[in-house]
Give the backbone structure.
Amino acid sequence: MFITVTKCYLKIILLLALALISTYFLFILNFEFLPPHFVWNYSSILLPFLEITFTISVSVFLNFLFFKFKNTRFLSIFPFVIFIVLYGTQITSIKISGDFVSVLALENLGELRYLPHDKIYMYLGLISLSCLLLILLQFVITRIEYKKDVIHINIIKFILFKLVLFSLYIFNPFEKNLTDFEQSPIASIFNKFYIVISSQKSDVKIDEIISFTSMFPTKRNFNLGNGKSKQYPLHQFHKKSGELPFKLKQHSLDPPNLIIVFAEGFPARLIDSYSKLKRCITPNIDRFMPRFMKVKNYFNHTAATFRGLQGTLTSHFPYPGGHMPGGWTEPNKSKKDIARKLNGIERQSLVDILDDFGYSSLFLSPHPKENILNSMLYGLGFSDVIMFENYEEILQRKFNTTIFNGYESIADREIFASLSKIIAKSDYRNDNFLVSIYNVGTHSFLDSHINNKKYKDGSNPALNRFHEFDYSLGLFLDFFFQSNASKNTILIITSDHAAHPEPSIRKAFEQDIDYEPYIVDDIPLLIYSPNHVFPNEYDAGGRTSLDLTPSLLHLLGIHEYEHSFMGNSLFSKSRLGSSNYAALGVKFYSIINKNFVREIDPENTTKKNEYNLNVIRTCYELERQNRLFNRK
């Protein structure tokens, strides 16, 4: 009798596990895009089944444990609830982003407002359905008679058997490459949390790395070891970058102004002049292409936006990002305290150096005053930051907004119209200026609004928003090239980082043979200068946005300044210390053969990659210790 009852429970566990694993696989098979590295193997099939049966077994065991205590029997459902939440989260993540929850996603939990509502409703539906299954399980279990001791022993044996299977999986002695935590929902998300938490502790021996780079000049990648002291191994004095490889059109006593457009999440492959596929997503950018020098094989060196803007303007690999511990939107800390701490890290930016040479600076931000991105921009040295609350005064009218999940920012057309208004004031501060702008309309998961531009039939939201951005930028370019500003202003069009590989992005680029579903990709760098004779295109050779700031100073003819840059001018003859790496906190990528991105496995890579990753980690640690730049 007792064995029969035990078998009954085990049958319930196995049948429910089969039902749940079948439901999970049906979801997976129904998705248009699976996680980029997903393969059907031991890890992706058996590990989810082990996770599910183990969770149900623990719930059943706890039900027996609390059987006589009706007030506490609800505790038995907790393991199952945790399972439901984790699997529901992972399934929703694949549906929305095309991947399991990533390290970058965990670092940016504060940006959940960007997620589309309909996908969140699907997630809540999954939770509700699973809870009904849980109630059914509880109903069946409470109606089976049992003898406590025998059932306990058999269930405990079953759970121990599962633990043995887990141990064999995690520490398997048979094949080293068999274990892949990325293939299963619970194992993957716990592995990602472990990576984020463990990354806060640095085991890099920075003094050894610094001493080594100081002794061997040819190993001084990222300029580490060029500094004036051991305490500040990146703080150095820049004399001259050498002659530019471009002729001058005209000699002017007045240095040129500078405008930098940072397009949110904008890959170069959208532009026909880069991709050669004639998709006509950006007809306005292509229309103005003859006025620009196109820099090809140029990649973003970090992501997402906080790291992208800060890293580009300071020529550094910033470690803090998003919602991670120590990041810009870290939970349970006031924005004021976060800004004070992170802006207290001394670093030299493009803005700081131009300020020393008499430039005033302005940044057009799409966000309201409360958004901490604005605090970071002030910390980078911008003397003025135009925010959401300021645009009505600039435009002298009500303006359209981009709304997502109740969060309001200025629409792309309106922010570029504001930029035109500001540039039209030729007497702006009566001196040279740096003006930079960042939009939000091309952010991941957004579509262009109903009255805005749609790409072809409007079925791809990502292409819709890029098409609308192109129209907005085109209006500004029409104004700029008809204005006096174009006679003494260098204009840069680039991006903070490439596009997040959500399903609509992967669908858009599925014909691109060189596309990898990473947020690191070829990004545009378009340079207009009234003073230089540029070729139609310039090959960056797989170098990155780490090099943009020293390149702009080289182009402006600004020399003799102190800095803590990890990059070097793209236009310098010497490629010593040039970078073909991207670093997103604990994620690293290399650009190989000038134009292919590959993710680096730090545990299984080449000696060269291992050394360069340690240099980047050393610079992370210098940042933590506030040893990047000595402003005293």
Remarks:
- The chain has a mean pLDDT of 83.
- The radius of gyration is 28 Å.
- The longest helix spans residues 2-30.
